[in-house]
Write a structure and sequence with these properties.
The protein is 38% helix and 18% strand. Helix 2 packs across helix 3. By secondary structure, it is α+β, with helices and mostly antiparallel strands. The radius of gyration is 13 Å and the shape is globular. It has a single domain, classed as Glutaredoxin.
């Protein structure tokens, strides 16, 4: 399925494993930097993407980029991507495409509330 190139929402996992690895402050910093840049992209928490061992996990939607293993040092690159730049390559290179597609299908179906 061809996905939109638009990014309206940045969904950040806040479940126990991702939160323990820093997803909550990463989400807060994404919010701060996007607001400072005048972006309308919303940063929203999500309970779990069922990829705990991969976290912190972030999905840019509807574009469909799934970032795994995000760190605070990656926030600037993620913001740049949201603003039209290239994806942060090291965060997408080992993503399981089947799991990514499953997560995106769940979001497309409205099973992820944002």
């Amino acid at each position: 399925m061809e996905r939109s190139k638009e990014i309206d929402v940045c969904i950040v996992c806040h479940n126990v494993d991702c939160a323990a690895r820093g997803s909550i402050p990463i989400g807060e910093e994404l919010t701060k930097q996007l607001a400072a840049a005048g972006s309308s992209v919303r940063v929203v928490p999500h309970l779990c993407f069922s990829a705990c061992e991969e976290g912190p996990n972030i999905v840019l939607y509807p574009q469909g980029t799934w970032y795994k293993g995000a760190q605070m040092s990656d926030v600037g690159g993620i913001v740049a991507h949201i603003q039209g730049g290239e994806p942060v390559q090291h965060l997408i290179e080992d993503v399981d495409p089947a799991l990514r597609d499953l997560i995106l299908t769940m979001i497309d179906m409205g099973l992820v509330d944002f």
